């Protein structure tokens, strides 16, 4: 086997290795931030869980066609397409409120308003007898999931700065646990 004369691999470890990489994770001093992230991810999971339950409910209704179910399935798209507007969320903010709170507060208020609207009009959206208003349900849940996806962008970015550097790995635990709790 011939060695290539121009190929060389150095495996030297620099003298000033980042101490953070060598420290163990420890939530001491980060518990409040951990629970805040868990709460935010749980609130983000609520629209996802309700829209998922709604699709099961629509399937159980005999007067909902496959076409109606296909239209409603579009409500899942915002999470798949969030990478398209994520750069805007990271770049645009009001300096007075901060990069994350500029988006988090309006998103939470808008999700709440949409929940209140859906709750107040549930008899027209999903009547006991008759056909559900698929278009309006789809619009509401597309907006809710768009806002939840935007919140996911915000909270993912915030998790990197709110947790201590050696605890950033817990952000994914908060994300998975919170969204699961919220969707239940």
TrEMBL record:
Biological processes, Gene Ontology terms: acetyl-CoA transmembrane transport
Keywords: Membrane, Transmembrane, Transmembrane helix
GO cellular component: membrane
Transmembrane segments: 34-57, 102-119, 139-163
InterPro entries: AcetylCoA_trans_1-like, AmpG_permease/AT-1, MFS_trans_sf
Domain of life: Eukaryota
Principal location: membrane
Any one GO MF annotation of this record: acetyl-CoA transmembrane transporter activity
Localization per record: Membrane
Protein topology in the membrane: Multi-pass membrane protein
PANTHER family assigned: ACETYL-COENZYME A TRANSPORTER 1, SOLUTE CARRIER FAMILY 33 ACETYL-COA TRANSPORTER -RELATED
Protein name: Acetyl-coenzyme A transporter 1
Taxonomic source organism: Schizaphis graminum
Organism phylogeny: Eukaryota, Metazoa, Ecdysozoa, Arthropoda, Hexapoda
């Amino acid at each position: 086997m011939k060695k290539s004369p121009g190929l060389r691999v150095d495996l030297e470890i620099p003298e000033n290795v980042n101490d953070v990489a060598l420290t163990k994770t420890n939530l001491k001093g980060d518990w409040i931030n951990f629970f805040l992230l868990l709460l935010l991810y749980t609130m983000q999971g609520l629209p996802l869980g309700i829209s998922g339950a709604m699709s099961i409910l629509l399937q159980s209704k005999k007067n909902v066609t496959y076409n109606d179910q296909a239209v409603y399935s579009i409500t899942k798209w915002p999470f798949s397409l969030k990478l398209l507007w994520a750069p805007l969320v990271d770049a645009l903010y009001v300096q007075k409120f901060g990069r994350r709170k500029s988006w988090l507060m309006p998103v939470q208020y808008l999700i709440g308003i949409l929940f209140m609207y859906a709750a107040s009009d549930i008899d027209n959206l999903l009547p006991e007898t008759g056909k559900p208003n698929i278009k309006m349900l789809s619009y509401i849940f597309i907006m809710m999931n768009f806002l939840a996806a935007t919140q996911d962008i915000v909270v993912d970015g915030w998790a990197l700065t709110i947790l201590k550097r050696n605890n950033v790995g817990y952000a994914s635990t908060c994300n998975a646990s919170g969204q699961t709790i919220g969707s239940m």
